[in-house]
Design brief:
heterodimer, A: mainly beta, seven-stranded mixed sheet, about 0% helix, globular, B: mainly beta, six-stranded mixed sheet
């Protein structure tokens, strides 16, 4: 158990819809990261938040947005869903401040299926 | 543009033998490298790391080698055990102060008894 909690574990929805994925980081971790893993692909970095502020952005579509709340949990919002958005979405957290240690703690992922 | 590449999608090894997983990268600014292991229905878990100032790091049965001139790293598992069967991801980052890991596509290792 990594200590990172993601909900829901599975989600099936239709094209054009909007979903929200939720992540609770490990206790004390200030950084939250979102990654997308499509079929047979590596983990693609989407976005990172540190203590409520956006710190780094990857290949995140404009239809996607995220935020980190004062209690440090984070939400990833996916809108106008397309078939190609079907993927595993991982949240990870780390305790880093201004020093990077490299190790991220991953949740079990949210599997999104768009029909 | 795939900055971190794992060209072998799968590897089969017999129990007790050595498993060697390879990873190549293109970004010369990467200075920290990690290996993650992933079992089905679980998130990736950290296995071992190496910084660019070293060429080898060892942790029990796991050793990571880094060849900066070739932009290549490898993970050696000796001896391999059936419980090592998983997908292994190589990842790399630049030391920007805020971590952004770039992952490879993974290598599925199967260790047979």
């Amino acid at each position: 158990d990594s200590g990172v909690t993601q909900t829901p574990k599975h989600l099936i929805t239709a094209t054009g819809q909007r979903v929200t994925l939720r992540c609770s980081p490990r206790s004390g971790d200030l950084s939250v990261y979102w990654y997308q893993q499509s079929l047979d692909q590596g983990l693609q970095f989407l976005i990172q938040y540190y203590n409520g502020e956006e710190r780094a952005k990857g290949n995140i579509l404009e239809r996607f947005s995220a935020q980190q709340f004062p209690d440090l949990h984070s939400e990833l919002n996916l809108s106008s869903l397309e078939l190609g958005d079907s993927a595993l979405y991982f949240c990870a957290s780390s305790s880093q401040g201004l020093q990077s240690t490299g190790e991220l703690f991953f949740g079990e992922g949210s599997r999104l299926t768009v029909l | 543009d795939q900055q971190v590449k794992q060209n072998s999608p799968s590897l089969s090894v017999q129990e007790g033998r050595i498993s060697i997983l390879n990873c190549d990268y293109t970004n010369s600014m990467f200075d920290y490298f990690l290996w993650y292991k992933k079992y089905p229905a679980e998130g990736p878990t950290f296995l071992i790391s190496i910084s660019s100032i070293k060429d080898k790091n060892e942790d029990g049965r796991f050793t990571v080698f880094l060849n900066k001139s070739a932009k290549h790293l490898s993970l050696h598992i000796v001896p391999s055990q059936p419980g090592d069967s998983a997908v292994y991801f190589c990842a790399a980052s630049e030391n920007t102060g805020f971590q952004k890991l770039v992952f490879g596509t993974g290598t599925r290792l199967l260790v047979s008894p």
